[in-house]
Amino acid sequence: MSNTIWSVDEHLDDILAAVRPLDPIELQLPDAQGCVLVEDVTVPAALPPFDNSSMDGYAVRVADVAGASEEFPAVLTVIGDVAAGSGELPTVGPGQAARIMTGAPLPPGAEAVVPVEWTDGGTGRGAATAMRPAGQAPEGASGEVRVHRGAESRAHVRARGSDVQAGDLALRAGTVLGPPQIGLLAAIGRGTVTVRPRPRVVVLSTGSELVQPGEQLGQGQIYDSNSFALAAAAKDAGAISYRVGAVTDDAAVLRDTIEDQLIRADLLVTTGGVSVGAYDVVKEALSSVGDADEPGSGIDFRKLKMQPGKPQGFGSIGPDHTPLLALPGNPVSSYVSFELFVRPAIRTLMGLPDVNRPTARAVLKADKALSSPVDRRQFLRGSYDAEAGTVSPVGGSGSHLIAALALADCLIVIPEEATSAEPDSEVEVVLLG
Q1: Which of 208, 348, 378, 433 would staple 372 via disulfide (CB 3.0–4.6 Å)?
Q2: What span, in angstroms and rounded, lies between the C-alpha atoms of 36 and 193?
Q3: CA-CA distances (angstroms) from residue 348 to 240, 252, 268, 406, 411?
Q4: pLDDT score for 290
Q5: Contact 168/126 with Cβ under 8 angstroms?
Q6: DSSP H helical segments within 238-280, as ranges?
Q7: Is 419 exposed, middle or buried (0-12, 13-18, 19+ CB in 10 A)?
Q8: Sequence-ordered list of residues with C-beta below 8 angstroms from that of 154, at least 6 positions apart, any chain
Q9: Closest CA to 198 of 433, 341, 15, 22
Q10: Alpha helices in 217-340 (DSSP H)
Q11: Where are the alpha helices (DSSP H) in 142-280?
């Protein structure tokens, strides 16, 4: 146990100095979602790879439809169909048109596409509303079509390379791969990609009083909310999270459980049992870890100049020196500690440059001054109005008030040197979500 009282920044710096980004691996696209790209990806070939139609209609020569109107339509000979994926393309000559579908390549000779709504659809009647399916009306690929409007050159044609050109930078290293990025990689033909994998985070709560939601509460028991909240927070931060049900206040059981979990953990998070009580089992179980058999590993329990979240533990465990963060057991303390320390550790494992939540300055809207203990950095739950640039406190300062946490979207920060924050003064807020 350290006798030094650490600042919030010192504790975070200590964690981030010890956590290294995970080694890159090559993954199939569906498995790469949520991962961070470690290479610049360039476009191997133009996208789209050919001139293609943006409408269902007719591929025509501009001169053949010049001046066309409903009263004096241009009558063209239909020489065939061009569907998306067509290989052999008919050549459109003078006085001719080819029926063309959206996404189909523009055939040789054609200079523009007239939408089917500008024609009679080959029916010999009035304006068409849609093209008849080829299977139901194969005769539509031949015969005549009446065009009621002219078209400029390249009308309704998507040019080759109009999305991206060969050699363009498609995605920069450091990009988190979401659905649009996965779609772009597929569109340019990438089946696999080199990424840092999503960190595997094991969340474990301790306390003999804890019961799993859905079960019956006995005398003196409460539901285990921390492991659910922190596992969800880890997932929200970009990790693959594993929640372990509450472990009773037994040091040997806890050590065995942690050792069992090491196989699937890039980071371990415990909640509860880190204070100075007789049953603070995490401290008892882990204080001596690594002292003899694992040089360089071990957990340091320390006090921080913060409220809530004064007691914290950090170190590494097991043969691979897996980082472990031991958070307090009070629900708000554990959540605030997660946001300040665990989330940045997860983002560091992912290889992201920006690991902290964004902050903003806001005007405090409160009925009275918010008090804060001297030499402690206080984090209060708040509701932030970005448009007005204001923040209002939500609930009290108690570290067990989880109902208020569910209504908060930020943390109001009162620095160590301040003992209060006055109404209408400017404060720093940490934006959550």
Answers
A1: 378
A2: 10
A3: 14, 31, 14, 26, 22
A4: 46
A5: no
A6: 251-261
A7: middle
A8: 111, 112
A9: 22
A10: 226-237, 251-261, 281-286, 331-337
A11: 179-187, 226-237, 251-261
- Non-local CB neighbours of 193 within 8 Å, separated by 6+ positions: 26, 27, 29, 32, 37, 39, 41, 177, 185
Q: 115 near 100, Cβ under 8 Å?
A: no
Q: Of 254, 230, 255, 262, which Cα lies nearest the Cα of 243?
A: 230
Tens-level pLDDT at each residue, the chain (433 residues): 457 899 999 999 999 999 999 999 999 999 999 999 999 999 998 888 899 999 999 999 999 999 999 899 999 999 999 988 877 899 999 999 999 999 999 999 999 999 999 999 887 776 776 676 666 555 556 789 999 999 999 999 999 988 888 889 999 999 999 999 999 999 999 999 999 999 999 999 988 788 888 888 889 888 888 999 999 999 999 999 999 988 887 888 888 999 999 999 999 999 987 766 655 678 778 866 544 444 445 889 999 999 999 999 999 998 999 999 999 988 899 999 999 999 999 999 999 988 999 999 999 999 999 999 999 999 999 999 999 999 999 976 554 567 778 889 999 999 999 999 999 999 999 999 7
Which pair of structure tokens corresponds to residue 67? 């001046």
21 class by beta-carbon count within 10 Å (0-12 exposed, 13-18 middle, 19+ buried): middle
Yes or no: say if 336 and 308 are a contact pair by the CB < 8 Å rule.
yes
In degrees and rounded to multiples of 5, residue 351 shows phi and psi of 85, 20
Query: What's 7's DSSP letter?
Result: P
Identity (one letter) of the amino acid at 352?
Answer: L
CA atoms within 13 A on the CB side of 318: 18
Mapped onto helix, strand or coil, the DSSP state of residue 249 is: coil
For residue 168, give the DSSP letter: -
Q: For residue 27, report the phi and psi dihedrals to the nearest 5 degrees.
A: -125, 150
Q: Which tokens hold the place of 272?
A: 């509860």
User: Alpha-carbon torsion 5, 11, 14, 19, what sign?
Assistant: positive
Opening angle at CA 249, ends 245 and 250, nearest 5: 105
